[in-house]
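Dear colleague,

Following up on Tuesday's group meeting, I ran the structure prediction for the two-component complex that the binding team flagged. I've pasted the input sequences exactly as they went in, so you can double-check that nothing got truncated or mislabelled along the way. The C-alpha cells for the whole assembly follow below. Feel free to forward this to whoever is handling the docking comparison.

Inputs:
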Amino acid sequence: MAEFELIARHFSALAPGGAGVRLGVGDDAAILEAPAHRQLVMTLDTLVSGRHFFPDTDPENLGHKALAVNLSDLAAMGAEPAWALLSLTLPEADEAWLSAFAVGFRELALRHGVALVGGDTCRGPLSIALQLTGLVEPGRALLRSGARPGDRIFVTGTLGDAALALEGLLHSRKVDGALLRRLERPEPRLAEGRALVGIASACIDISDGLVADLGHICERSGCAAVVQAARVPRSAAVEADLQERGDWRPLLAGGDDYELCFTVPRQNIKALESSGVRCTAIGEIRAGSGVKVVDESGRELPSMHGYDHFA
Amino acid sequence: MAEFELIARHFSALAPGGAGVRLGVGDDAAILEAPAHRQLVMTLDTLVSGRHFFPDTDPENLGHKALAVNLSDLAAMGAEPAWALLSLTLPEADEAWLSAFAVGFRELALRHGVALVGGDTCRGPLSIALQLTGLVEPGRALLRSGARPGDRIFVTGTLGDAALALEGLLHSRKVDGALLRRLERPEPRLAEGRALVGIASACIDISDGLVADLGHICERSGCAAVVQAARVPRSAAVEADLQERGDWRPLLAGGDDYELCFTVPRQNIKALESSGVRCTAIGEIRAGSGVKVVDESGRELPSMHGYDHFA
C-alpha cells in the first residue's frame, strides 16, 4: 500500500487548514477543538460508483459533489462547516484522477472553510466515504421535527434540473451544460441554512426529491403537507420539459437538487422576508399525515403516489 | 432503497445511547455536545471486503472488528471513545447478515460506551466505513511525535498471533481457535491507552506490524529505535512457529495485532510500573533514524529490511 500512502500525502498537502485543528493528517487520529458553547453536527455518507455517480464521472466534479452533498446535510441543520475526514477507496493508485478529485474538493472546501483533517485511502471498488462536522449554537439546529399545522412551506432555488440532466445522460441524449452543472456541481445552501436559524421551524435538503424529503419532515413532525404544484419553482428547461411531456416527476420527485425545503410559522414570515434568503412559497403544513400535491384547482395530482420510490 | 431504510432502522434500534447525544439517527445529521474542556479525537477508516477481511467472514466477528480497529486508533491517542457514525455498503439487503453484524458491533460498543449516532446504508460492493470521535483532556493526547533518545520502548500483550492465524487461513490450514480469535476479535487497548496519558512520550497501535508502526513513531519523532528481538512478547503458538520455521515476520512485521507500542522517558518508568499497564520492554529510542532489530548478541537481523512492505 506504499503507493497509496504517497497518494494520501499528495492529497493531504492539498487540504486547506482551518480553525480548531490541533493535529491534522499524519497520526492515528486528528485532534480538534470546538469553540465554547457550540454543539457538533455530524454526518457520514458514502458515494458508491455506479450507484451514486457514473464510473466515468469527471473526477474534479466528483470531488466537488462528494463534499457538496455532505455540506448540504449541514446546511439543512443550519450548521457552520468545520472539519472533514475523507476515506477514498480506489481501484488503482491513479494520481491524475486523485489530483483532479482534490482540485474539485479543495475549491469547495476553501469557499466554505472546511479543513480536511484525516481519513485514509485504500484499494478496492471506487467509493468515497466523507464525514463532516459542523458547529451550531446549542439548541438552535434546524430539525426535521419542528413543523406545525399552519406553517408555510418554502424551497430555495429551482427544482428538477439535476433529475432532467440525469435522465438525459441515462438515455444518452445531449445534455445542456447548465443543466449538467446542476447535477454534477450542486451548490450546498449553507448561507441560506445559517440564515434560517431562528426563523424556520423545520428544514431538510432535497436529495431524494421534494415529495419524499418533505415527507420526511411530515413524518418526523407528525403532520401533513399540501403542495401547490404550479408554485414549485423551476428553470425554463424544466418548464419546457413539463409542457412537452406532462411529466411532473423531475420537478417533484427528482433527486440531487440539494436545495433546502423548510417550513416557517406565520409569525416568522416577516423575518424570513428580511433575511435575504431567496425562496419560494409552495404550500402549507396541515394536520394529518403525508404529502398531497394539488393543481391550481385544488385537485390532487393522481400520479404523485409512489413518487417516494422514483429516486 | 426502501429495504435499506428498513435495515438502517433495524440497525439504529440496536445502537446503544450515550452521553452528549442531543440527536441521534433520523435527521440530516447527528447533534452532539462534548463536555467542557475536552478536545475531540477523530478517526475514519474503511474496511473493504477481500482486502481487509475475507468476504465470508462471520458477520458478528466483522461487526466487532470494524469497531475494534477504529477504537484501537483512539486507544493509541489516549482518548476515551464517545460517538460513532457507520456507513455500510452491502451487495444486498440481508437482514440476517446485518443483525449478526449489529450484535458484534453492539457488544463492543456497550463495553466501551460508544453511541452509534448516525450514518447510512447503501447498496454496492461490501465495505464498512466507520468514523469515531473520542475525548481527551486538552494537550494530553498521546502522539507519534514525542519519542526522544533514551526513552524505553514497550508493547502491550503479545504480538504475531493474528498474522499467524491469517497465514494459516491463506494456506487453508486448520487454525487454532484462540489464534483465530486474535485475528477476528481483537481487543482494543483503551484502558491501557488512557492509563498511559502523562506517562508515555509517544504511542501507536500495531496494525501494520511492529517494525512498520514503530517506524512511524521514529519518523514523526525524528529518531531511531533499537528492538531486542528476543524480548518481543509472544504466545506459545508464535514461539513454536518461530522455533520451527525461523521466520521472524509474524512476530515483528505481522499486522492486525492492535496492541499498543509506546515509548516512556526514564523518569516515568516508575509511574508506568505503578500504572497497572501490563507491558514488556523491548528496546530503546536512539538518535538517528529507522528501526533496527537485533538478536541477543547485538547483531542486526538481516531479514528485517523490507518488513515495512510485508503487510
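Chain B touches chain A through 63 residues (CB under 8 Å).

Cheers,
M.
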